[in-house]
Amino acid sequence: xxxxxxxxxxxxxxxxxxxxxxxxxxxxxxxxxxxxxxxxxxxxxxxxxxxxxxxxxxxxxxxxxxxxxxxxxxxxxxxxxxxxxxxxxxxxxxxxxxxxxxxxxxxxxxxxxxxxxxxxxxxxxxxxx
Length: 129
Fold this sequence. Notes:
Blueprint: E1 2-15, H1 19-23, E2 26-36, H2 39-44, H3 53-63, E3 68-69, H4 72-87, E4 91-98, E5 107-114, E6 119-125
Parallel strand pairs: 1-3
Antiparallel strand pairs: 1-2, 2-4, 4-5, 5-6
């Protein structure tokens, strides 16, 4: 099984518990790790035989348009579900980093889901997974 990763893609999304916090888009960093069997892509050298990471990045950059979330736990779940549906990896791990605590480097929420839909939320503060 292979792995395709996008690390710390910078996006702006409306996320926050209060209406005031959601009023303006916030800078977030998204990391996505997709498990996929890309053996046939390695043999054929054809983009159609693998997950197009550029297409995934473009999908993520547009994902927050005209939407908002109160919790990054919901955002990370929505992103994971979207990637599983759109790009069909065997499994996906998504981490969202938010910069809301001045004394912390960031707060992050991560989620791993496989195609069967099982998953587990892992919360981390200060960038510790």
